[in-house]
Amino acid sequence: MTEQITYAAAGVDVEAGDKAVELMKASVRRATRPEVLGGLGGFAGMFDATAIARMDRPVLATSTDGVGTKVAIAQALDIHDTIGFDLVGMVVDDIVVCGAEPLFMTDYIACGKVVPERIAAIVGGIARACEQARVALVGGETAEHPGLLDPDEYDCAGAATGVVEYADILSPDRIREGDVILGLASSGLHSNGYSLVRRVIAHAGWALDREVAEFGRTLGEELLTPTRVYAADLVDLLRDPSVVAGGGVHGLSHVTGGGLAANLARVLPQGLHARVDRATWTPPAVFATVQSLGNVPQSDIERTLNQGVGFVALVPADAVGATTAFLDARGIATWVMGQVHDADRAPIDAGHEVIHGAKGVDGGSVQLVGVHR
């Protein structure tokens, strides 16, 4: 008799997937907004666009991203309830850069085997981060890929949509000579550069459970620190009356892959140059540790890791005080790190690289000068 081959025999457990959905329901219910229609389990997430329709000229903004190889740290430590903050931060914080308010998000998790409790932990983290960002988690998908991924392996990605009035878009033409460059502290490595970080610690022979005095905790705990999610605070900053009275925010940059200089250059218009002084801040210990362990060149570390700066705001001088006060009150350390100059008159320090544009954007230029204090 010919053997019967079932879906379960092929490695896909439909019942485990259903159990995972049941376990995540409570978390997802909290990550909502009044505009969300329907509930978990529909074929599509629905969002009432009535408020958008009342805008003068609504412009939708969208972004998609993943977590990268940071998931390998979560898997090695068997801790899965924080990786969602990395996913949400990478997606919704990109949307805020253009001045848009993120509205809703969907996620996708591919795994070698559905372990309901693990999937629920991942989605629970995504939901908590969405709740913090005031973004609705309107749907998602978990796919079991036996034979393609090992049973304990998974990867996740997400996409989000936001909206902004056309007149309020933070385009490069808002940025002016004399604008002040503010650094917003990161929570650590965030979710970029982990291929380098993992290679360095493997080369050094460091285990994830190694206690590191400079961190005040284990290496694994430091590496798994969740990405700071800035979205809700920055949306509120753009609308804050005291900030607007000082001239408002002229530009924002999310410091992700490519590092500080490259991402700042992406939002500058041609003809402007940003001069950033490293002496204005001290990167957290994890950055110096990675650089020292791997003998990583300065230029490479700055192109790979955020060096303690998760976001940059460009504001007129009259808005600096209100902006820093607002963000400090939200628990985001903020400091003046430089200024925007006319490119033809900008002071250029010999021996320091000048970055011109990045990721296909032919924008302005950026130079990091000095040394960290």
Automatic annotation (TrEMBL):
To which pathway does this protein belong? Answer: Purine metabolism; IMP biosynthesis via de novo pathway; 5-amino-1-(5-phospho-D-ribosyl)imidazole from N(2)-formyl-N(1)-(5-phospho-D-ribosyl)glycinamide: step 2/2
A matching Pfam family: AIRS_C
Chief place where the protein resides = cytoplasm
* Family annotation (InterPro entries): PurM-like_C_dom, PurM-like_C_sf, PurM-like_N, PurM-like_N_sf, PurM_cligase
Q: Is Nucleotide-binding given among the entry's keywords?
A: yes
Localization per record: Cytoplasm
Q: Where is the PurM-like C-terminal domain?
A: 176-345
GO cellular-component term (any)? cytosol
Alphabetically sorted, this entry's keywords are: ATP-binding, Cytoplasm, Ligase, Nucleotide-binding, Purine biosynthesis
The answer to keyword ATP-binding applying to this record is yes
Biological process, per Gene Ontology:
'de novo' IMP biosynthetic process; adenine biosynthetic process
MF terms (GO), sorted A to Z: ATP binding; phosphoribosylamine-glycine ligase activity; phosphoribosylformylglycinamidine cyclo-ligase activity
Catalysed reaction(s)? 2-formamido-N(1)-(5-O-phospho-beta-D-ribosyl)acetamidine + ATP = 5-amino-1-(5-phospho-beta-D-ribosyl)imidazole + ADP + phosphate + H(+)
Q: Which residues form the PurM-like N-terminal domain?
A: 51-164
Any idea of its EC number? 6.3.3.1
The similarity comment for this entry is:
Belongs to the AIR synthase family.
Q: What is this protein called?
A: Phosphoribosylformylglycinamidine cyclo-ligase
Q: Look up and give the organism this protein is from.
A: Phycicoccus elongatus Lp2
What gene does this protein come from?
purM
